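Weekly puzzle thread! Below is a chain. First person to post its structure in token form gets bragging rights.
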Amino acid sequence: MSKRLLAMALSVVTLGALTTTVAEAGTSPVVRTDSGPVRGVSTGEYQSFQGIPFAAPPVGDLRWAPPRSPEPWTAVRDATEPGPRCAQGAGLGSPASDAEDCLYLNVISPAGPSRKPRPVMVWVHGGSFTSGAGSDYDFKRMALGGDVVVVTVNYRLGVFGFFGHPELGRDSGAFGFQDQQAALRWVQRNARAFGGDPRNVTLFGESAGAMSTCVQLASPSAAGLFHRAIVQSGPCTLTWPDGGFFPGVPAGSPYLPRAEVEAIGAEGAGKLGCADVACMRRLPAKDLVNQPIGTPAFGTGLLPEHPADALKAGHFARVPVLTGVTRDEARLFVSMFPGQPFTEEHYQELLRTAFKEKAPLVAARYPSAKHGGPAMAFADAMTDRIWGCPQVGTERLLRERTRTFGYEFADRDAPPLFPAPPGMRSGAAHGSELAYLSDLAGFPAKLTPAQQELAAQMIQYWTAFARTGNPNGGELPKWRPSPRTQSLAPGRIGPVDLAAVHDCGFWAGL
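Winning reply:
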């Protein structure tokens, strides 16, 4: 028997043994995972399991090491509360944590039986690779509305997830991505125990979670771990100019070459008084959590090349992809720039930093008077330059080799994540679509009836895509493959020319 056939046989045997044991509706369901039994919560409508370990605590010698299997257990483990957040500083709606024992996931699904295993959707949270947790997202509306199993995962963040050092070799800057793959392997082993289909797994995420999904699409070691991908507000070809993403942030992309990540890590370690990784592993988590020495790397064993280069070369998984951005992405980030409210002088200074001698061309294309003031003008320019036009490029590269569906979330009355400063309107800012797909911890959203209808439609699109690789189904407005990008707004679902909306002809010629 070949190794491949043997692995398939072992998988079938394992999954067959992991039969769900569920109590009556409204009581406490117990499921046996491959590490041990867990007890969750059932409302009769849905059941949830939280804080299930998918890897051993990455502490001590396992700090900056590939994730290991968790220690098995025999007694029924409580799974009614989420595990600790991975170590992180305080962020936007995200509390600080110094917990390294954080590799836990959460599962939510309809409580009733299903005629056949349900599609599984694995959510990777955003947060600039430095903050957030899987438990920040409650996907019961998606689980019930689309009859799917949703898994949300934690992964190591910041310096703990993306630290590089010459001693760490080809794992430098990739530990958080390794955690994501460990969670996907857990899903392959355990999906059936929760009523899910391990042969129909959709990886989806927003912002850093979308960028992570780009990484997993381009990662040879992720092959076969998922069968569809949804990339929300994290185009695989995303780049930014000097100071365009945030003041003081130089031009670049979310990923750096491994050699550069290792040089940054070695320099940062020296500033902390450490000449080697062993010394760094002895430092308390609280002394590391806010160190800016963790950046996702390519040129690693997990990610051999930059995701944009992988797409251009065709070195990515040929799975169906649903991908999109919001209409006003950059307004969230510009709202957090210092020096609010913007003056015209500040706007022109930002343009000179970002575009040097070509700044007057951008100022003429995005005049303050036309865009509602200097802050709004800069945000609109950065939306087009950083998000909208890279999204057009990403869709083009994907559709050359796989079935691709593009969207733009365009509800400019979406509930904001936080109040906009004077002189700004949030519009359909970065992250504004999240409240339509899940309930967000710390950001309770009050949707109007029209927005609730849009939310239900989006959930149907997302889960139909997870089920079949095509978002179409039922009586929803037809969604055609890219380049026919779909605009998503209350009462206004239909095709949109994304390149024209974001003035990509101008940016291509700049």
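Puzzle host: Confirmed. Bonus trivia for everyone else. The longest helix spans residues 374-399.
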